[in-house]
Amino acid sequence: MLIISEYGIYNAVFSSNKPEAKDFKSWIFRVIKELRKASGYEGFEIFRMLDKEHQKEMMKKLQEGLKKPARVDFIKANTIANKAVSLKHGYPKMVKKADMAPEMLKDREPILADTVELMSVKDKYGLDVSVSDTIYKKNEEKVS
């Protein structure tokens, strides 16, 4: 039996390009907008709350994906993701997650997911690849 978390469903839908997924995404955005208006939250506050959930999910996935997870692995994954997003947005140095604009945080989610996945695969198979170089290269196209 396959069990998917609520976050997993949203993650699958938000990474899909199918027409049904696009309709669902639009609906989610409308609901979030209405919730934000009803609760008095600003848009970026809602997004930061969703980002925290994604962060927890990715760190759990990294912990499960590594043979011997250590604190440095979690720091490494976040640093690589932050630097890749910063470079993508034209910053020469890493911008801390807390200082990122909502657009940067949106771009950070799939980059962090890719980083966690690559770190796990590298560890599982003992691959000789640079996770940071691979992630930076994959995301080198700048946002205009």
Structure description:
This protein has 144 residues and is mainly alpha-helical. The chain has helices at 6-14, 19-39, 43-65, 71-88, 102-125, 131-138. It has two domains: 1-40, no CATH class; 44-138, no CATH class. It is globular.
Low-confidence stretches: none
- In this structure, how is the largest beta sheet organized? none
How much helix is in the residues? over 70%
Strand share of the residues? under 5%
Q: Which sequence of SSEs, written as H and E, runs from N to C?
A: HHHHHH
Question: How far from one another are the termini?
Answer: 44 Å
- Supply the number of structural domains: 2
| Strand tally | 0
What's the rounded overall pLDDT mean? 87
Count the DSSP helices: 6
Structural class: mainly alpha
Key terms:
mainly alpha, 72% helix, 144 residues, 2 domains, globular, 0% strand
